[in-house]
């Protein structure tokens, strides 16, 4: 069986950027055999939140490569040039392309690596391969849509699987109900609810705000309740000094800060990334409620300072028990459908790597995103997008993606060279004996 230097699980922006980095390094005599496995049937990036008029919240300069190699073929600028839209884009006078266009850019970049990516395969487990007293390789097992299991061997692994939908505890008992949606599958499923009269949107961030506006524009007669614990919708702070926390050198600062102090840093800047929509979007929502006042109607409601205590699936809808934090009282409301814009958790990789846990200590990572392991475990396992606690708030964003892949690639090259040296030493020892 062929042995790869690296297998990547997932082929979203992080691993596309890594593929580009490794390909460019290969061109300067640093070869590495790599392969990626993606469970989606083709490339797609947040496909179910590809809403009309939705724009990026990060500059196009923080694309897959520019901060690492501005001369790369894979810059967003070169993508525009190849698509013959560069001058038109310049005329827009913006740093923030539509989400649809950026998705097209990512798909364009991903297409360069169709030869080394298996789409439509879901990785089901990663197993250790022993050589004597050492774990020398990893066996990656995946299953395709025909239920055929594929096995591949690798010296290193990078896990970039994004987040899994976070379902608040009070919604867990009804999470399988067809009337409960998560933003992760919003567009795919909302068309099934065109008949609803009353819908709840739970959340305070960009996704909740975008979904509220999409529902408002999609359905004329629907009643929408926007429910959140916060007193108001707070805009993201994208001012220059605050934005410095997304610079790559801030990653060094966070990582080198004592563990006890990292939480303070993350908490100080939490609203730069979470529960903080764009100001323009907030103004649009405010205008919707204002125009209702002008018209004297109460079609939509902003239930601020309300916490969902309990939910129950009934034949006539989803029943909410809401705690009104303003008046310290409870109320019961029934909705035909519910959209949870409640974010994601990013620890699913632990389930995927469960067979390896005896060798991975506490799953902590070094500065180069490599999971720390026992000495007898030789493969390198890297995490992308799951190291916010150790590397800062930018870890799940595009901001550091390009530079991060260079750091991972360098560590990978060290692993490859070390493996070659060990093989040479074993060959010499065998010859002498």
TrEMBL record:
SUPFAM superfamilies: FAD/NAD(P)-binding domain (SSF51905)
Keywords on record: FAD, Flavoprotein, Monooxygenase, NADP, Oxidoreductase
InterPro entries: FAD/NAD-bd_sf, Lys/Orn_oxygenase
GO biological process: intracellular iron ion homeostasis
Keyword NADP assigned: yes
Organism domain of life: Bacteria
Record family assignment: Belongs to the lysine N(6)-hydroxylase/L-ornithine N(5)-oxygenase family.
Name the record gives this protein: Ornithine monooxygenase
Organism in which the protein naturally occurs: Nitrosomonas supralitoralis
